[in-house]
Design a protein that fits this description.
Layout lengths: L2 H36 L5 H41 L5
Helix pairs in contact: 1-2
Length: 89
């Protein structure tokens, strides 16, 4: 495998790991906001902050997942190019 393909693959793995972390954080923010809302407490601002955090972390997780897919596609494309045309770089 060429260096470019390996770098793209490593980036894809890194983005995927970060994406999973952000998605788990998004779920945790959602659960926390539901727990605060279900207590009928006067912490409405805290619940809204957690909901905002859920939106932001969910969006970041989605973007990182998209970047991971793009880099994986680039790595696969490079790998296929290396196999089909072994002498070219």
């Amino acid at each position: 495998m060429s260096d470019l393909g390996q770098i793209s693959y490593e980036k894809a793995k890194s983005y995927r790991t970060k994406s999973v972390i952000f998605k788990v954080a998004s779920i945790a923010c959602g659960i926390a906001s539901l727990a605060i809302i279900s207590n009928n407490s006067s912490n409405r601002n805290t619940a809204l902050i957690f909901l905002g955090g859920q939106i932001v972390t969910g969006y970041a997780g989605g973007k990182l997942s998209q970047l991971s897919a793009q880099n994986l596609d680039r790595a696969l494309w490079q790998r296929n190019k290396d196999v089909l045309f072994p002498g070219r770089q």
